[in-house]
């Protein structure tokens, strides 16, 4: 297993290069997997380029959609047609354009009580996993995609939120005090039950928070991410704090 300090780092020239690297990584792992391949998708803006790449004919025609199950690392607790919905974003950029069986897409619930929604998503995950307790060596996810917020959050594990202390539940709701919308999020134990955690971080606005997390600053929620498998930082030169062109 790995933590954010021992994780390896891949620095690429541009956000497009980051998207291409991750698309190639997912293709390689999904094609090599025996049987079902489970991915937890990240939201926000960084992964949009990745999802657009995956929707292109040359890629979509080769990816094993029929044996890949798509879950979400987090979502805002808003209707799918809201501009803030991660589920809505992935549906419009990727799923609307590729031959993924609808039953392979597992969006987070977007109505009712947040805690009930978290419980029902957890049940969805347990059905997919085939058990209700996580076992090391039997990862829940093949790949978990994560972003990094400037306040050190990842998924919807926000600073000062009770969800940061959650050690058994796989999914929880949270109401960040520094972000709009109630959220649903995978918890640290659920994310740790993975073969590969990929952090996608681009742009100079992330340089400071990235260096704090890479140093393991405990004040940053992302610093506490672990994987039973590997963690890889896939960043561009902007986020790495390296001026362009050098
Ligand atoms: C979300 C994401 C969140 C995101 C970070 C970074 O629902 O917003 O899951 O964790 O990865 O906020 O967002 P950007 O990629 O937009 O910088």
Walk me through this protein's architecture.
The chain has helices at 15-32, 48-54, 57-60, 86-93, 114-129, 188-192, 207-214, 237-240, and strands at residues 2-3, 8-12, 37-41, 68-72, 74-76, 141-146, 171-174, 183-186, 194-201, 226-227, 230-236. α1 packs across α2 (48-54). β7 and β8 form a beta hairpin. With 246 residues, it is an alpha/beta fold. The strands form three sheets. The chain has a six-stranded parallel beta sheet with strand order 2-11-9-6-3-4. Strands 5-8-7 form a three-stranded antiparallel beta sheet. It binds 6-phosphogluconic acid. 6-phosphogluconic acid is lined by residues 42-46, 73-74, 86, 147-149, 153-156. It comes from Acetobacter sicerae. Hydrolysis of 6-phosphogluconolactone to 6-phosphogluconate. Residues 14-233 form the Glucosamine/galactosamine-6-phosphate isomerase domain. Pathway: Carbohydrate degradation; pentose phosphate pathway; D-ribulose 5-phosphate from D-glucose 6-phosphate (oxidative stage): step 2/3.
């Amino acid at each position: 297993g790995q933590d954010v300090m021992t994780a390896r780092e891949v620095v690429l020239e541009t956000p497009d290069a980051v998207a291409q690297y991750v698309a190639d990584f997912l293709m390689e792992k999904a094609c090599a997997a025996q049987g079902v391949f489970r991915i937890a998708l990240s939201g926000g803006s960084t992964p949009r380029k990745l999802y657009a790449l995956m929707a292109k004919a040359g890629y979509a025609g080769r990816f094993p959609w029929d044996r890949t199950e798509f879950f979400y690392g987090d979502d805002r607790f808003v209707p799918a047609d809201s501009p803030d919905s991660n589920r809505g974003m992935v549906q419009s950029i990727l799923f609307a354009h590729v031959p993924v069986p609808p039953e392979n897409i597992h969006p987070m619930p977007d109505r009712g009580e947040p805690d009930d929604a978290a419980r029902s998503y957890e049940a969805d995950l347990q059905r997919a996993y085939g058990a209700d307790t996580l076992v090391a060596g039997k990862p829940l996810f093949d790949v978990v995609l994560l972003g990094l917020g400037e306040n050190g959050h990842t998924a919807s594990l926000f600073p000062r939120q009770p969800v940061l202390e959650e050690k058994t539940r796989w999914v929880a709701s949270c109401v960040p005090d520094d972000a709009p919308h109630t959220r649903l999020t995978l918890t640290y134990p659920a994310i740790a039950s993975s073969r590969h955690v990929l952090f996608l971080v681009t742009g100079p606005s992330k340089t400071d928070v990235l260096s704090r997390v890479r140093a393991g600053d405990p004040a940053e929620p992302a610093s506490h991410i672990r994987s039973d498998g590997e963690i890889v930082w896939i960043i561009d030169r902007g986020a790495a704090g390296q001026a362009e062109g050098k």
